[in-house]
Amino acid sequence: MDFSRRDTLGLALGAAALTVLPYRVNAAAEDRIAEFTGGADMGEGGLTLTAPEIAENGNTVPIEVSAPGATAILVLAMGNPTPGVAQFNFGPLAAAQSASTRIRLAGTQDVVAIAKMADGSFVKASSTVKVTIGGCGG
Question: CA 115 → CA 2, 14, 66, 68, 105, distances in Å?
């Protein structure tokens, strides 16, 4: 099979675009985290993220987050084209600072939860979910 210069250039540009795409998704997630935290450091502990290790269908993946003493919890799917999945805000009269929902995952990836605590600190938890059937777009 012979490739012309135009074919070779097209393949090279396509390959370059595919290598840059994950960086754009990662940059979107990092931007969303910076927006939520204001650039503050994040600690560990005090936040529980429950997600299945293996999801048979990426269209409906059940997750649960819990952070006693939190005022807000942000949930991100790091491999999705739009990483922001949900943000839960808790008022002073909230009985519990926990929530559960079903999310859509584009494929095997990390799910990250970040909680803003009442004292202004931030804590982070993550879980890797292996998706066996495609979710977002495949």
Answer: 56, 39, 9, 10, 21
pTM comes to 0.77
Asked if 128 and 109 count as a contact pair (C-beta separation under 8 A), the reply is yes
Sequence-distant (≥ 6) Cβ neighbours of residue 45 within 8 angstroms: 123
What is the biggest distance separating any 2 CA atoms in the chain, rounded to whole angstroms? 70
What contacts 29, CB < 8 A, 6 or more positions away?
A: 76, 78, 83, 112
Q: How do residues 73-118 score in pLDDT, each as one tens digit?
A: 999 999 888 899 999 999 989 999 999 999 999 889 999 999 999 9
Element spanning 115, H or E? strand 109-117
Residues 40 and 121: their CA atoms lie apart, in Å, by 8
Single-letter residue type at 122: F
Report how far residue 52's alpha carbon sits from residue 126's, in angstroms, rounded to the nearest whole number.
12
Rounded to 10 degrees, the C-alpha dihedral 18/22/24/25 comes to 130
